[in-house]
Amino acid sequence: HSDVALYAAKAKGRNEFYFFDTELRHQLERRQHIERDLRAAIASSDLTSWFQPIVDLDTGRVAGIEALVRWTHPVHGTISPPEIITAAREIGALPVLTDMVFTNCCALMGRLNKSGRPEIKVAMNLSPLELDITEVDKLIIEGLRARGLSTAQFEIEITEESSLDYSRADKKLRTLAEAGVSIALDDFGTGFSTFASIKNGWITKIKIDKEFVSGSTSSLDDALLVKSVIDLGKALEIEVSAEGVETKENAKLLLSLGCVLAQGFLFSKPVSSSEILGTIERIETSKARLAS
Ligand code: C2E
Ligand code: MG
Ligand code: MG
Ligand code: MG
């Protein structure tokens, strides 16, 4: 691993060579291993989607499910979704990953339909880069049609990034919206998730970032921010959903402010595909009703 040592020495400066530590070497090795093993993981079931329910606070019924990518590396353990996306981009496997996640979403939609729950929407996260480099509009519209699935049952969650040229993405999003796919603006209130894209006309839902949701019961600023996003959604007739709902207090506050859709550890952590139908049932039969 002399190349690694050299890189580190250069990065840290010649005189600091002594301080080249195992920590940095581990980080580099970790990245190399992740990139080396990623393709095989995508092809196998090692890398897969887990699912988290989104609950209607008015009825206590599950209204949607978000797919979240998961990978436990045999040596390095849990690899976070952003790390997976970055590595996939590095090795040119991002379209393959998008494809796999979409296929997982379709499989779940099929199972929901079979169990008599076609009204539960399935949401897939799309990073700005995936939106930019892959023909996601075609993938989704043709993929749903080929499987006999309805676009009305499918949602994509997008985030914004300053570095991206949105003119191409805009066209794809418009195509998807016109075909009946719902489009949620994720992590609203953070980074570049801004008002600009709301007025483009294809946003059907705003997801309030968990940072503000979890803060809303202790910080007045956060509560006011949450309230203003809910009011904005109402004024524009855009659905509003809250993520990171961890306590009953959180859920009650949201409901009192007029936010009906909620997602978070209070109801369930993301679960594997074999657990999701049981999890829906557990949530819906739970005696711990909020509106009490
Ligand atoms: P996100 O789309 O905002 O997803 C919500 C994140 O919050 C998930 O983290 C979820 O596990 C976590 N979460 C849910 N409920 C709670 C809660 O009550 N408290 C707290 N503290 N966290 C909660 P995760 O799975 O680590 O995903 C992180 C991000 O990675 C996602 O944020 C999304 O932007 C991205 N991502 C995940 N899966 C995919 C995927 O398949 N494709 C793409 N492109 N991005 C993905
Ligand atoms: Mg999301
Ligand atoms: Mg989010
Ligand atoms: Mg987030």
From TrEMBL:
The protein's name in its UniProt record: EAL domain-containing protein
Location of the EAL domain: 31-284
Residues of the full protein shown: 312 to 603 of 603
